[in-house]
Amino acid sequence: MELMKGARANVLEAIGNIPIIKLNSVANEVESEIYVKLEYMNPGGSVKDRIGSYMMDQAVKEGKIKPGGTIIEGTSGNTGVGLAMWAAINGYRCIFVLADKQSKEKIDNLRAFGAKVVVCPTNVAPEDPRSYYSVSKKLSETIPNSFYVNQYDNLHNRDTHYNWTAPEIFEQTSGDFDVFLATIGTGGTITGCGRYFKEKMPDVKIVGVDCEGSIVAHYAKTGEMTEAYSYVLEGVGEDFIPENYDFDQIDDWEVVGDKESFLMTRKLLKEEGIYAGGSAGAAICGALKYAKKLKEPKKILVLLHDSGNRYASKIYNDDWMSDNGYLDNSFDVQITDVLEKLNKKVDLAIINDTATIGEAIAMMDTKGISQLPCVDTEGNIKGLVTEKRLLKPIMMGEFSKEDNISLAFVHKYKVVEKNDLLSTVADALLQKEVALITDNGKLVNILTDIDVLHYLSETKSS
């Protein structure tokens, strides 16, 4: 009997053909357009469905595993699901080794497939016999008819994306994008896609997003091996350099932290309806940082790796976020929202660095202000003048009104973008510093400790 029209032969045939959509609310702070490929819509919930199927097909073709054998892999969870799906369809067994920082949902998902799961400590070196790399390799050496997939050094990983993911994207878009950006882990996605796109689109830029604590971005930029330190993001970054990397395919890097990534992940769901994992938040944070550096708007395509349902007990759990210091309702708000709440006008008083102290005093008196930012002819911030800084020196004759304004500068200020979180300037404001607010590098407003107190007061009362 022929297959029903419109149907697929099995779940593996449903992998791929994933839509691309435009971000709207989350990306409204930059001129560039940001598009995302929703790889969490694969049947197993992540882009790793692709490499699970492709790598095992190649392993069978190459005779590395015989029918009924055991698949062994060290995984952060997503590759394990892709492999487990392939194993279920083709009649193989699975053993997966995970680090203990992985979410409970990932472990439960793998066990639901009938796989055996071994959990190893996170904070050990890759060569440590307790690491999930070492344990995976040891299991493959002791279990007959087993195959250690090793997604880190198995070059069929990056070949998956060169032969499948990237051509799919190119066909969908006809190459109508300027930048391809993805978080990095094993290196397969960024390297495989990067190589394909560079062959088809010579002017395309490939941007990798690494996380604080990982060694990859630093190594790529400097060639220096540093020591990794602990971070919470799953599926992003590494503490060694897998063989799948080809750094010639990656043009630029952005590095993001746990907290900003988790908050952006939640924001994606609330404002865009995108239920994705923590690496998606990291990718969008990286895309926004990259976009802010561009001199002209570009079309940026971002690959979102996995589904949010694997992080329900972590990123999407208010208690977990709060207990780990990722939620602080008072300060985890964008500065632009604070300014709007306070109804602070954008008509900011500024003075040029060629002005005199007398002119500064006159402006402060006329405007009724106590802080006055100073800029050069190109709009670059040069310093800050305050009422307190002028009063005593003028009275004591240290300054005259004809002196250049630069003599009276104070440097207790911090420059931040209007869409940054209030938490980025909280410490500075508590130390009586002033926050100078910019929009794409242009000074647009000022925020003081008194402003924050007013904001907190209004927030509490409402």
Annotation keywords:
462 residues; alpha/beta; Rossmann fold; CBS-domain; six-stranded mixed beta sheet; four-stranded parallel beta sheet; 15 helices; elongated
Topology:
Elements: E1 20-22, E2 33-38, H1 48-61, E3 70-74, H2 78-90, E4 93-99, H3 104-112, E5 116-120, H4 132-142, E6 146-148, H5 156-173, E7 179-183, H6 188-200, E8 205-211, H7 216-222, E9 252-256, H8 258-272, H9 278-293, E10 299-304, H10 318-323, H11 335-342, E11 351-352, H12 357-367, E12 371-375, E13 381-386, H13 387-396, E14 413-417, H14 423-430, E15 434-439, E16 442-447, H15 449-461
Parallel strand pairs: 2-10, 3-4, 3-6, 4-5, 7-8, 7-10, 8-9, 11-12, 14-15
Antiparallel strand pairs: 1-2, 12-13, 15-16
Helix pairs in contact: 1-2, 1-5, 5-6, 8-9
